[in-house]
From TrEMBL:
Keywords: Coiled coil, Glycoprotein, Membrane, Transmembrane, Transmembrane helix. It comes from Cynoglossus semilaevis. It is found in: Membrane. The chain crosses the membrane at residues 12-31, 43-70, 138-157, 202-222, 234-251, 301-328, 348-373, 394-414, 420-441, 465-487. This is Transmembrane protein 104. Belongs to the TMEM104 family.
Length: 492
């Protein structure tokens, strides 16, 4: 997940919504983007990131259209229930109506219902309908289970990335050379950190400490984090601004050491995963879009956001690859400033940038862990059933916490972790799920709404061709990334 979870209770303006969305997307993925950008070559990276930004924008409009369709579905169900209660002919509850889905009661067009009263825009997005609820409304049982499995895999990847990023930053600060006697040295895991303790040992010590301190939050709920996230967001933008400005100063002084290749296709698969991960916001759109008070310009807002985000990624990546030697770029971009006194000579600021991921990621880890735990409970939930206390409070938190920590113990290659998470689970959330949501929501509501009904939040890419294009692109990308991984392992 890019930038954490935004708490959205009170309505806000479209401009505030734009800021929220921008802040949500820009996160951990941005810190790994420069390394992936340099590995694939600047020209190839420029084309790929622009195309993937466009694809992400398209699927974002798919999700918004599905949200409007879900609101229309809920309104129609309530209107039908009210009419049945008034006529004293209802034989089932509201929950029964929701479960029955596309039954015989849905053959009456909604337009005929609304003619009897005042005009109501049934597609107005006023009720927050999360993606899980939309999946339950428009998918069958298999589709719902596949949705939750995809979300769970993605959140596991998120937690593994977070669990590795914090110890890496702590290790680099504790074991790096901050005396300015060296310039951009690349260390190995077997190099000493404290006496006989190697850098890899130090990393695992920090990972163990991180797990002990933040792991227990998985056993509880994460609430009231609004002000904490405001603080971390402020730190994030101070850090990003510093890095861009410092790199620009170095380049304008003709002191930049970067000489990136124009194209290196071997780095494309990993760049693809990093880009997908970095543009991820589809799963958080209900929380972002619903509270916007005036939704007339939501489409323009989303387009403006993606344009700004694409420009930001390009600015960050280009200043990085031309300021630093591409072969010495760290997986976590902030670490390039910790031991390079030519770029940043103030010790306090070097420590701030080095430790910046520690503060921001540590606040998000408990929130993502609790979210994953809740998704596990939802996946196995049965109507009317409850979990035993041990299962609810012990088993689910443990299966949430242990796997990502084990992955982080085995590897701290952030570029690969981000790439794999984005390429597989990220492809499902960013491409496959939105495409199926908008496809089935259209099929689901057409008999009910009638062909004359117009969804004012309909995607600009309304033709069915775009849905199939997204699905074919997702299938091609998965096959391409998988084949590259297999071929790479075979060569080794």
């Amino acid at each position: 997940m890019a930038g954490g979870i935004t708490e959205t209770g009170e309505p806000y303006s479209a401009f505030v919504g734009l800021v929220y969305m921008f802040n949500l997307i820009i996160g951990t993925g941005a810190l790994t983007m420069p390394k992936a950008f340099a590995t694939a070559g600047w020209a190839v990276s420029l084309v790929l990131i622009s195309f993937l930004g466009f694809m992400s924008y398209m699927t974002t409009t798919f999700v918004i259209e599905a949200m409007a369709a879900a609101n229309a579905q809920l309104r129609w169900k309530r209107r039908e229930q009210e009419e049945e209660i008034d006529s004293e002919s209802s034989e089932y509850s509201y929950d029964d109506v929701m479960v029955r889905g596309r039954s015989e009661t849905e053959t009456k067009p909604i337009l005929s219902v609304q003619r009897s009263g005042s005009h109501v825009d049934h597609f107005d997005i006023v009720e927050r309908v999360e993606m899980g609820q939309m999946a339950s409304m428009f998918f069958n049982k298999v589709g719902v289970n596949m949705f939750y499995i995809c979300i769970i895999v993605y959140l596991y990847g998120d937690l593994a990335i977070y669990a590795a990023a914090v110890p890496i930053s702590l290790m680099e600060v504790a074991c790096g050379n901050h005396s300015c006697s060296t310039d951009g040295v690349k260390y190995n895991d077997t190099d000493p950190c404290w006496g006989s303790v190697t850098r890899k040992d130090a990393y695992r010590v920090f990972l163990s400490t991180f797990t002990v301190l933040l792991g227990p939050f998985t056993f509880f709920s994460a609430q009231k984090t609004k002000y904490l996230q405001i603080l971390t967001s402020l730190m994030r933008w101070i850090a990003f601004t510093m890095m861009i400005v410092l790199a620009l100063i170095q380049i304008t002084k003709h002191s930049g050491k970067g000489n990136p290749p124009v194209a290196s296709f071997s780095g494309v698969p990993n760049l693809f995963g990093v880009c997908v991960y970095s543009f991820m916001c589809q799963h958080s759109l209900p929380s972002l879009i619903t509270p916007i008070s005036e939704k007339k310009h939501v489409g323009r807002l989303v387009l403006a956001d993606y344009t700004l985000i694409l420009g930001f990624y390009m600015l960050l990546s280009f200043t990085a690859i031309f300021c630093f030697d591409s072969s010495l770029l760290h997986d976590m971009y902030t670490l390039n400033f910790t031991d390079n006194c030519d770029v940043l000579g103030i010790p306090v600021l070097r420590y701030f940038l080095g430790l910046f991921p520690v503060f921001t990621i540590s606040t998000n880890f408990p929130i993502i862990a609790v979210t994953l735990c809740n998704n596990w409970k939802t996946l196995f939930h049965r109507d009317g059933g409850t979990y035993p206390w041990v299962v609810d409070r012990i088993v689910f938190p443990l299966i949430t916490l242990i796997p990502p920590v084990l992955v982080a113990f085995c590897t701290h290659n952030l570029e690969s972790l981000v790439g794999i998470t984005g390429a597989y689970a990220g492809t499902g959330i960013q491409y496959v799920i939105p495409a199926f949501l908008v496809y089935f929501s259209r099929r689901h509501l057409e008999p009910v709404m009638g062909r004359d009904a117009v969804n004012k939040h309909q995607s600009p890419f309304r033709h069915a061709f775009w849905v199939w294009f997204v699905l074919l692109w997702a299938a091609f990308c998965l096959m391409f990334v998988t084949a590259n991984i297999i071929l790479t392992d075979t060569r080794k």
